Amino acid sequence: MVASVGPASLLELVNQSFEVMQTSLAQYKIAGYPPDILINVPKRVCRFFEFYKAPELIQLGRQIARDTLERYEELH
Prior knowledge:
63% helix
């Protein structure tokens, strides 16, 4: 039973469904073709329409990439 479903929450529901599908497809492809390096940026750092967070998310992605590459270089 959905009590207060508005346009925004319906859009978020559709987006979450899409994300579940995309995540499943990505996991399937990664299992079949494992990459040398996988950089994971958490999906929950922003919501669907939070485009204004782009600068901080780009910085976060860069930092995660640097950390991941450093760990990779230490192991190889």
